[in-house]
Amino acid sequence: MNILVLNVGSSSIKAAIVHSETGLRSFSVEVERVPTQPVALFSDGAQIEFPEIGHEAVLRALMPFLRSKIRDLGVRGIGHRVAHGGSRFDQPVQLSPELVLDLEELNDLAPIHNPLIMQGVRIGMEYFPDLPHVAVFDTSFHHTLPKRAYTYALPKWLREKYHIRRYGFHGTSHEYVVELAASHLDRDIRELRIISCHLGSGCSVTAIEYGRSVETSMGMTPLEGLAMSTRSGDIDPGLFYYLTKKGNFSAEELNDLLNLESGLKGLSGHSDMRDIIEQSEAGDEDSRLALQVFTHRVLKYIGAYSAAMGGVDAIIFTGGIGENSSVVRYRVTQKLHYLGAILEEDANNDIQLTDSKPVAKFSSNNSRVQLLAVKTDEQLAIARKAKAVVEGKDTVNPIPRIPIAISARHVHLQQETVEALFGKGHQLNIHKWLSQPGQFAAQETVTLVGPKNKLENVRILGPCRDHDQVEISRTDEFFIGIDAPIRESGKIENSPGIKLIGPKGEVLLPEGVICAWRHIHMNPSDAATFGVEDRDVVDVAVINGTERDLVFGNVLIRVSEDYILEMHIDTDEGNAAEIESGNTTGALMATKSKGVLQKRRIMSPVFK
Length: 608
Description:
The structure is a single chain. The protein starts with a strand and ends with a strand. The strands form 4 sheets. Strands 15, 16, 17, 18, 19, 20, 21, 22 and 23 form a 9-stranded mixed beta sheet that branches. A hairpin with a 2-residue loop joins β28 and β29 (596-603). The chain has 608 residues and is α/β, with parallel strands linked by helices. The longest helix is centred in the middle third of the chain and has 25 residues, at 285-309. It folds into 4 domains: 2-137, ATPase, nucleotide binding domain (Nucleotidyltransferase, domain 5, 2-Layer Sandwich), CATH 3.30.420.40; 171-382, ATPase, nucleotide binding domain (Nucleotidyltransferase, domain 5), CATH 3.30.420; 409-515, no CATH class; 518-607, Beta Barrel (Barwin-like endoglucanases), CATH 2.40.40. Residues 394-398 and 581-608 have low confidence and may be disordered. It has 19 helices and 30 strands.
């Protein structure tokens, strides 16, 4: 399917007709220096003069060219890159006049980008009213950030009133390159911990744990984080008060200073890394300092994010600088031996990424952590997401009921651990059978002892497994004083440990305490009915006729011949939705495969 991808930037406008499957560009145009002296480069050699400057004038001048290409090339939809989707828009959406108004309310969150982007949306919808227009958000990929990562240490009333939180950006690029990297490594992305460094005019680092963004350097706006082309990145917030008092700066002047006159430009007078490296080699001290500050910030974030994930399997460099600057890659990675990331200098110097070879490894063969340069393609990513929305917008299918079960805190144990707690040769006794075939709640219970408190009479579930695992709720975490990660069952690496007490002994587990990732068990026929695959992630809206209707995001699909259809949530989640035994409800499930909204379907779960 051919999709017109429209990307309106602060000083440029890019448009391309992209085939969503092959990535082939049948037409493209890029206009640079839009606010001052616009110059257009057409892929077909066309020429245009702009009688007026500015985004609206340039966009309107381009529309006749785009109209003829849309007609000739059979374009089926238009994908718009939108910088900020706020807390509401966590998936691509087909735009309507009402949604455009909603998005324009977010303009203050990305003041340099969103107003111009929305101007492009309005003009596009005016000229092409019969085509579906799809907004693809830079922030969507980061909606999986845990609360601890997206919450600023500000008063709750202030955060809620003004929607202050970390949103993150470059999500379309980060999502695209980690999938390419996982494919190159021949690994399932949901088994990898990856740090993605998008280094270009704008820069951000994202920690991606098992396919989900769990930390990212940009914040409520694209200003936070790394030093960038003209943006300051991280600074002391006290600087605002200081400059207001000492320099009599207005809010607008400070905004321009930090977004347009700082970063590499402020440090060296040059905003292009190629110029900075050239001047550094010629002896310019300001350029040398700019290069040092830039690479130091990237290195610092890599260290922080490897700690946050408890390790890292691959580190990706992408974006204009990340893909093309061997100097920057070298300066960042030369000190990463402590992580097990060992640079191969010749491979780094020889990297030449192409469409046919978009991934290159530059770590040594004995490096535990893979170092990769990956060619990003945000236009293709946007085209694919837009296609999914265009094709799925009218999908309505009858769906069977899904039972929902609430799992209280429990433990899974190895046989040797059972014997250590209950005596040599002890076998678990069945208290009652559970809904999943072969699974049972045992008569035996243990006491969990944390740093602060203990939980008594915690049920063991059988049969025994090949590893020990303790599943508790968020409320339990705070009570016993343990910070457990949200994990799929079995993914216990780098999770905290805990002491177990039984009637015949004690066992100190070195790891294994998790907060279970809410999930739906399905057998293959159920998965075919719902149009999902094993380990897809879906959203489920629970509508139970009370004032506590809510949407459970990031629900994991688990498919096996041994499963029967059932959704599992913990006690906190059940209480949040006021789920009670015997209730029946309707729910809306939006399936997401690799982050792309594909289908919307009505379900009727049964609670028990």
